[in-house]
UniProtKB/TrEMBL annotation:
<dbReference type="Pfam" id="PF13181">
    <property type="entry name" value="TPR_8"/>
</dbReference>
<feature type="region of interest" description="Disordered">
    <location>
        <begin position="459"/>
        <end position="533"/>
    </location>
</feature>
<dbReference type="Pfam" id="PF09295">
    <property type="entry name" value="ChAPs"/>
</dbReference>
<dbReference type="InterPro" id="IPR015374">
    <property type="entry name" value="ChAPs"/>
</dbReference>
<dbReference type="InterPro" id="IPR019734">
    <property type="entry name" value="TPR_rpt"/>
</dbReference>
<feature type="compositionally biased region" description="Polar residues">
    <location>
        <begin position="506"/>
        <end position="533"/>
    </location>
</feature>
<protein>
    <submittedName>
        <fullName>Bud site selection-related protein</fullName>
    </submittedName>
</protein>
<feature type="compositionally biased region" description="Basic and acidic residues">
    <location>
        <begin position="482"/>
        <end position="505"/>
    </location>
</feature>
<feature type="compositionally biased region" description="Polar residues">
    <location>
        <begin position="459"/>
        <end position="469"/>
    </location>
</feature>
<dbReference type="GO" id="GO:0006893">
    <property type="term" value="P:Golgi to plasma membrane transport"/>
</dbReference>
<dbReference type="InterPro" id="IPR011990">
    <property type="entry name" value="TPR-like_helical_dom_sf"/>
</dbReference>
<dbReference type="GO" id="GO:0034044">
    <property type="term" value="C:exomer complex"/>
</dbReference>
Length: 707
């Protein structure tokens, strides 16, 4: 008899050192879950048929998309696993000496903060119960099952293509495979809508509200990405009417912000305007209603009106990051760059909380089987270790590690830089913010005067800022990789200029980047301030986090400038510019951050010439879909479909591939993609997988399914 337990067929597994240690670890960390919770956990115990021959074996994997509406629906999934031992030699061979004794399925209820568990034993039956934060058991009611069902679906929708939620051994199924399942999801969402604020919200929202939470975000994402906002509009209409009857007109008007957004998404702009008009007459100080108007006006090119409404939204909710960020966007639209930088500096920043995940004990072994058709298709290539190497400067770029409000603020800063350039950005920065040298000069001229640089910043705080001892525990300090600390000091004092110096020698051209200090004399600063009407006391104190983001931007621009200069040099010399696949991928990400899509596309394509990169394929798929390049988008979708099945993601929607394919379907129609699928010839497995997208489009009436 084999001493090792057989694996589950086509299912990832982590083998435990001690039986059920994964479930025990999950129980211990229940109190750390803040929002939607971790993915579902499935634990299996395998036993030898002959007692005493060897020990039991415990394994586990992660799951999403399983129907968690009852113990019976979960038991169906467990029973499929219990009968899926990989026994290639038949039942009358030594491998048949193993059997699955029991299985436990854990699903987190984010509404009631309970972990619902279903245990199937063979022989035996099905036992279901809930575990609270203290590890105590509770009976399950129909309301708890409904909350568990909706919690599982929200995780499956929101984390389907979230890059911050990647796990090995994570099986993903369709959360809503049939239209009747969608009706069930809508009914559950309507029933639990008033509890949505308990789930938390996006990192950019400080406090979750009844209309700004994970539930409403998931509904808009699910129906918005598939172009079926009419279903969302109908749902929000019912909820708004119900809220008016139970909680009053004002509460119902808050939901009208979601209804109007859904109307705009389905091109019913007249209905959206009427809904907004009615709601604003009742609740004129609602920033979600104002933001819907702002987005609508920006789409119509009425940027001046949008700025006025964005300012009003800030006045209504000055403690929210999104209101300040929206105003910054609008000010950039009207080219008020100084106002945009000042507004960005005023944004309230929040500490980013990582996704709910729990640490598992280190498994003694893992198993990640590959389906045979994926291997035969040869759509996924093995990577060369050399192509996974990268220069340390590229690996240490700090921008990819930004999260939450800091990532969004950096996106606004890069947009501002893209509009005016680095030099003008530094000039604007010195015009609106107090520079350290300027402060010291002013202090030496009048050491006894009280210097006021901001209405809400005291003189003591300014002195601490000038000496660089301001400490804000909630804001992470971003360390920049540079040649010397002198460059960083020069940046803080007045600004930096980026330029490249090309020197040619006997062996060819070499490119160096130099950073020059562009500090001006005190007389020049004074004359500039006088000409602009900005005296020293009119300037603001730049927040430390914004200074850090400026340094992050400088580092990105420095590396990008070096790359462009080297590329031009090699091109002029008719020489091949060599980099590893990972380096090209990082450069592609860098170009995207700097809003240079063409250079990003070239970098991603060069990356794919050297290695298989799912990230590069996803980025290219999005670029091709937005550009209407159907042929190349379809080719990228084929490779990504095989990659998803390799890593147990069999979900058709929502995921990154279907989101981009639906964009093409809206303009080209589904029939064209069907013919392209048929043209693949005898590659039947990949044809079968692609056909699932087209079947979904026809079953759920996605826009473009009729032609």
């Amino acid at each position: 008899m084999s001493l090792e337990a057989p694996w589950l067929k086509d299912c990832p597994e982590f083998i435990e050192l001690e039986i059920a240690e994964s479930v025990a670890s999950r129980t211990e960390t229940l109190s750390t879950f803040r929002e939607l919770g971790p993915p579902d956990l499935c634990h299996i115990i395998k036993s030898p048929t002959k007692v005493g021959t060897t020990k039991d074996s415990g394994s586990y994997h992660y799951v999403s998309g399983v129907d968690a509406s009852s113990s019976a629906s979960i038991a169906i999934y467990l029973n499929e696993l219990l009968r899926s031992l990989d026994l290639p030699q038949g039942w009358f061979t030594p491998n048949a000496a193993w059997k699955v004794r029991s299985g436990t399925y854990c699903c987190y209820n984010a509404f009631s903060r309970l972990d619902v568990r279903v245990q199937v034993s063979i022989p035996g039956g099905v036992d279901s119960y809930a575990v609270d934060l203290r590890g105590q058991r509770h009976e399950l009611s129909s309301d708890l099952w409904l909350e568990t069902y909706l919690s599982a679906h929200l995780r499956a929708i929101l984390y389907a293509d979230d890059p911050n939620y990647k796990l090995y051994g994570y099986r993903k199924f369709d959360p809503i495979p049939k239209p009747e399942d969608e009706e069930k999801f809508l009914a559950a969402s309507q029933h639990l809508f008033h509890k949505g604020w308990q789930l938390g919200s996006d990192p950019e929202i400080q406090v979750a509200t009844p209309i700004s939470n994970h539930l409403t975000t998931a509904i808009l994402k699910y129906f918005g990405d598939s172009g079926r906002m009419s279903r969302a509009a109908n749902l929000f209409e019912k909820i708004a009417e119900s809220q008016r009857k139970t909680s009053g007109e004002k509460v119902g008007c808050e939901v009208d912000a979601l209804t109007a957004k859904a109307y705009i998404g389905m091109n019913e702009e007249t209905l959206a305007i009427r809904t907004l008009n009615r709601a604003l007459n009742v609740s004129p100080q609602s920033w979600p209603l104002l933001h819907v108007q702002v987005d609508f006006l920006r789409s119509k090119g009425q940027h001046q009106w949008a700025v006025q409404l964005a300012r009003q939204a800030v006045e209504c909710s000055p403690s929210e990051f999104v209101t300040w960020a929206k105003l910054t966007d609008c000010l950039i639209d009207i080219e008020d760059f100084e106002g945009a930088l000042l507004t960005l500096n005023s944004c309230p920043m929040f500490t980013y909380n990582e996704r709910d995940l729990h640490r598992m004990p280190t498994p003694i072994k893992n198993h990640f089987p590959i389906q045979k058709w994926v291997i035969d298709s040869q759509l996924i290539e093995d990577d060369s270790p050399k192509e996974n190497e990268a220069d340390i400067t590229l690996l240490r770029l700090p921008a990819p590690s930004l999260r939450g409000t800091f990532a969004r603020a950096y996106e606004l800063l890069t947009r501002l830089n893209n509009c005016i350039g680095w030099d003008d950005l530094l000039k604007i920065r010195s015009n609106v913010f107090v520079m350290e040298e300027e402060y010291r000069q002013h202090k030496s001229d009048d050491s006894t005067a009280t210097i006021i640089t901001s209405d809400n910043v005291s003189a003591q705080t300014q002195t601490q800022a000038s000496n660089e001892v301001i400490k804000q525990p909630a804001i992470p300090t971003i360390k920049i990789s540079s040649d010397s600390d002198h460059e960083r000091e020069q940046f803080k004092k007045g600004g930096l200029e980026l330029h490249m110096e090309d020197s040619r020698g006997n062996e060819g051209n070499t490119t160096d980047e130099t950073v020059n200090e562009t500090s001006e004399t005190n007389d020049t600063n004074q004359s500039d301030n006088d000409s602009r009407g900005l005296s020293f006391s009119d300037k603001k104190l730049c927040e430390r986090w914004l200074d850090n983001l400026m340094l992050v931007l400088y580092e990105d621009l420095r590396v990008l400038t070096i790359y462009k200069a080297e590329r031009s040099h090699f091109k002029s010399q008719q020489m091949q510019y060599r980099k590893t696949g990972t380096e090209w991928e990082i450069i592609g990400d860098l170009c995207l951050r700097m809003h240079n899509k063409e250079d990003a596309k070239e970098a991603y394509q060069r990356c794919l010439d050297l290695k298989f990169s799912a990230k590069s394929f996803i980025k290219l798929l999005e670029i091709f879909a937005n550009q209407g390049d159907t042929q190349r988008a379809f080719a990228a979708a084929i490779r990504l479909t095989a990659y998803n099945h390799r890593w147990y993601n069999t979900s058709v929607y929502p995921n990154a591939v279907s989101n981009q394919l639906f964009k093409i379907v809206r303009t080209e129609g589904v029939q064209k993609l069907k013919f392209m699928t048929m043209s693949l010839g005898n590659d039947l497995p990949i044809q079968s997988q692609l056909s699932k997208y087209w079947n979904y489009i026809e079953s759920f009436k996605v826009e473009g399914e009729a032609f």
